[in-house]
Structure formats: structure tokens, C-alpha cells
């Protein structure tokens, strides 16, 4: 199914990966190794990570820009993603009156994948979220694209695995996890 001439777009649900890696494996994802494996020699057109910024990150980033010695762990993480060649889409976390917090990129990620699929042969969704099943179906059947899903087996929705042309388990990729 993977062919060298395929033009590939990779869309990464960072929150989904971060929490799964942390809770299941007490580890972090090595995004450089993950991308190298997912591409397997194909032509990368775009790789976008969808991240949620906590309230304090803006202040930490400003301090770092003004010569302060240490950036927040979140700002450091975002910088590492950028250094791996990953384009970031950022959204601030929403905090509601009762203290509830909400932050997800599902719609933004889906819109980007559909819009960019017009110049891609293969779309790789890096998420285990079952909300993306309709997106996978549309990309495959409505647009004729190859759709691969990569995530952690234990936390990936079974319908998402089934609907993809290929499922790639992150825990099976050598060096994809960095143990703490």
C-alpha cells in the first residue's frame, strides 16, 4: 500500500498522544522517529501538530524571548516539535465559569485534512480518537485517498482502526517512545 511516489500529509492530535504515552508507558513520544517510520521513504508534503496552550505558556514564552533562563516545559515541548520540522497549530485552553476546561482540535484537524487532501495521495492521522471515523470514511470513499491511522493500540477506538487502510501501533515502532 505504501508507495515511494505517494505525497503524504500527517496530522497529529498531540493531546491524544501525549496523554496516552504518559499514562500507558510513562514515556514521551519521539516525534522524529515516529515521522520517519510513518513516512517510510515517501514524499512529505505537510506535517501539522495540533496543540493546546495552557494559560501560563504565553507568559513563559515572553520571559524566554526576553532573555529569561528557562522556558516552561510546555514551551520547550513546542520548540522541540518545531525543531522536528512539524508545523504547529495552537489553540488556548478554554476555562469555563465552573472551572471546567475544554480544548480540542477535532474540527480544525478534520478541515485541514480535507482541504489538503486535494494535493495528497495518503493522509496519516496520528490519533486514537473515534470521532475521526467519519473523516477517514470521507477521505477514503469521497476523495479516494489512502488513509493511515497511527496511535497506541490500547487507547485507539476499534472502529477507527477498522476504517483506516492501515493502522500503525506507535508502541511497535522502535525508538518511538522515550522512557522517563
Mind explaining what this structure looks like?
This protein is α/β, with parallel strands linked by helices. The chain has a single domain, classed as 5'-nuclease (Rossmann fold, 3-Layer(aba) Sandwich), CATH 3.40.50.1010. It has helices at 14-25, 31-39, 57-65, 73-83, 106-116, 133-142, 158-163, and strands at 7-13, 27-29, 43-53, 87-92, 94-95, 101-102, 122-126, 146-151, 166-169, 177-179. The strands form three sheets. The chain has a six-stranded parallel sheet, with helices on both faces. The radius of gyration is 17 Å and the shape is globular. The termini are far apart.
Proportion of residues in helical segments: 25-40%
The number of helical elements comes to 7
Q: Strand content of the residues, in percent?
A: 25-35%
Report how far the terminal alpha carbons are from each other.
35 Å
Assign the CATH class: Alpha Beta
> Low-confidence spans: pLDDT under 50, at least 5 residues?
57-64
**Strand numbers in spatial order across the main sheet:** 4-3-1-7-8-9
Radius of gyration: 17 Å
CATH topology (fold) name:
Rossmann fold
Overall form: globular
- What would CATH call the homologous superfamily? 5'-nuclease
Summarize it.
By secondary structure, the chain is an alpha/beta fold. It has seven helices and ten strands.
SSE blueprint and pairings:
Blueprint: E1 7-13, H1 14-25, E2 27-29, H2 31-39, E3 43-53, H3 57-65, H4 73-83, E4 87-92, E5 94-95, E6 101-102, H5 106-116, E7 122-126, H6 133-142, E8 146-151, H7 158-163, E9 166-169, E10 177-179
Parallel strand pairs: 1-3, 1-7, 3-4, 7-8, 8-9
Antiparallel strand pairs: 2-10, 5-6
Amino acid at each position: 500500500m505504501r508507495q515511494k511516489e505517494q505525497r503524504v500529509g500527517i496530522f497529529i492530535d498531540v493531546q491524544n498522544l501525549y496523554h496516552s504515552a504518559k499514562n500507558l508507558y510513562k514515556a514521551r513520544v519521539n516525534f522524529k522517529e515516529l515521522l520517519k517510520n510513518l513516512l517510510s521513504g515517501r514524499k512529505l508534503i505537510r506535517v501539522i501538530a495540533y496543540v493546546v496552550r495552557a494559560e501560563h505558556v504565553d507568559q513563559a514564552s515572553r520571559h524566554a524571548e526576553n532573555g529569561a533562563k528557562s522556558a516552561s516545559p510546555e514551551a520547550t515541548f513546542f520548540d522541540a516539535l518545531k525543531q522536528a520540522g512539524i508545523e504547529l497549530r495552537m489553540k488556548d485552553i478554554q476555562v469555563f465559569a465552573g472551572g471546567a476546561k475544554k480544548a480540542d482540535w477535532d474540527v480544525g484537524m478534520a478541515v485541514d485534512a480535507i482541504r489538503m487532501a486535494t494535493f495528497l495521495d495518503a493522509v496519516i492521522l496520528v490519533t486514537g480518537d473515534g470521532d475521526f471515523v467519519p473523516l477517514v470514511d470521507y477521505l477514503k470513499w469521497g476523495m479516494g485517498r489512502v488513509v493511515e491511522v497511527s496511535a497506541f493500540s490500547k487507547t485507539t477506538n476499534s472502529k477507527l482502526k477498522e476504517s483506516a487502510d492501515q493502522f500503525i501501533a506507535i508502541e511497535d515502532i522502535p525508538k518511538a517512545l522515550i522512557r522517563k
